[in-house]
Amino acid sequence: MATTQEMKERIAALAREMVEEFGEVDDSDALSWLDAIESRAVEIGDAVAAELVKQKSADRPVEEDESTCPKCGKLGQYRGQRERPLVTRRGATTIIEPEYFCPCCRKAFFPADQSDRR
User: Fold this and answer.
1) Do the beta carbons of residue 61 and residue 81 sit within 8 Å?
2) CA 64, CA 75: separation in Å to the nearest integer?
3) Distance CA 97, CA 43 (A)
4) Distance CA 48, CA 21 (A)
């Protein structure tokens, strides 16, 4: 996904707001002043990435009232949404996903698990 000009402008505006809010960068524990700035930027970027993953997972539509159990192949029943901790490339976050129950296996399952747990 290419970053659009509008996104670049919004990111620049957000960065200006954060610079004003957080004030001077403490470089006492860093290798250099630029290292301290980069560390702060990485920390903010990780927090933004985690929040985007959380919000987008909550927006994912539940397409069916039933889903196939990965263990026995029978239809499971939709039980609602649940939160699950997830470790991403950018750090830990929480996602929201649909939960199903298989009456045959008597276990809950989560269709998203098939693609995100390798």
Assistant:
1) no
2) 11
3) 26
4) 16
Taking the C-alpha atoms of residue 66 and residue 73, their distance in angstroms, rounded to an integer, is 12
Residue 48 phi/psi, 5-degree rounding, is -65, -45
The pTM of the full predicted model, rounded to 2 decimals, is 0.64
Residue whose entry in the numeric block shows the structure tokens 């960065």: 15
Each residue's pLDDT expressed in tens, for the chain with a length of 118 residues: 557 889 889 889 988 898 888 888 888 888 998 998 898 888 888 988 888 888 888 777 665 667 889 999 999 998 888 888 988 888 888 888 888 999 999 999 888 655 544 3
What is the rounded CA–CA span in Å between residue 36 and residue 24?
10
